[in-house]
Amino acid sequence: MVGSLTSEDKGDFEHFMLKEIFDGPEALRQTLRGKIRDNKIVFSELKLEVQAINKIFIAGCGTAYHAGLVGRKAIEELAGIPVEIDLASEFAYRTALWQAGDLLIVISQSGETADTLAALYKARKAGIPILAIVNVPDSTIARLADMVIYTQAGPEISIASTKVYLTQLLVLYLLALYFAQEKNALPPEELMACINAIATIDQYVEKALTQQPRIKEIASHYYHANNAFFLGRGYDYPVAMEGALKLKETSYVHAEAYAAGELKHGPIALLNGDVLVMALLSQDALLEKTLPNINEIKSRGATIIVVCKESLQEHCQEYENRIVIPDTNPLLAPLVAVIPLQLFAYYMAIFRGTEVDNPRHLTKAVTVE
Ligand code: M6R
User: Which domains does the chain have, with CATH numbers?
Assistant: First the structure.
């Protein structure tokens, strides 16, 4: 159910979802507050011997899981700590080979998700320390975890999580950089460049939001679609997963995400003129591999929408449905690339006439396993 704020709280926006997408930059600024001091990442919430961390496990559901997928990549790439990630709902059914020095990170907007709580209990039973990334203060997960980092997104009313996803990503990037800093895992100038990039990321998100009219226009052409694929490689893949989830939950369009390279291993059989394909191109180094995948889709007659980084635009000229996102450090691109996908899901829902803030069969906190 949509939360208890009144319609006035939407300000000039017609729906909470749209307001919350536009709240993203401010949510990032609030979450960043106090985390960078004298060019260093500071986490007073953590009671951890970073050098002694052996492996990190991450568990979450839905959007929180998608944030965790990005976090895994960042932690492994920047800090060199191995990470395993599970859907919290599956974590109970597999053997976690815990070792001394392991840490579980649970991610949850509500802090009340039953599946995520079950993952927490499993680690607790094994004596593994638990760090929670939570948005709702004093929620059950926040109370039970050994350490809590709050995302400072403020209340999120719309069932589709948007601004909180951004802040979850931000906390995970900051954690990855903090671990790297404490382990001296990166050359100082590289660490500094990443810290500087993250300190100004809100401005890039603001810029991505200026694409709103273009995205609305594209959605107005394609809202009758019944099937959509979201494609990406590297950091773009978990963002594609998030885009597909947003679209299905708000507009009830059947949407799936595929790693761009996986398409030819089966799903390509589904492509025809009725399929909408959203392709993400935010990673310079992966352009050469992903472009041929998109061309292949084109030759199968599917409608393509390309979300493309500004400096890669020249490679995407042949795609009329182009949404341009600002150039960022490729590591941080998910924070920017997800904005058009959130807006696209919103406008698809609006044109299809669904109850965008309160989609059928969903609740803001899923408290049953
Ligand atoms: O409150 P949580 O972050 O633990 O919730 C997890 C999922 O239920 C949630 O992200 C869900 O997928 C959202 N409706 C996505 O927009």
Answer: 7-199 (3.40.50.10490), 208-352 (3.40.50.10490)
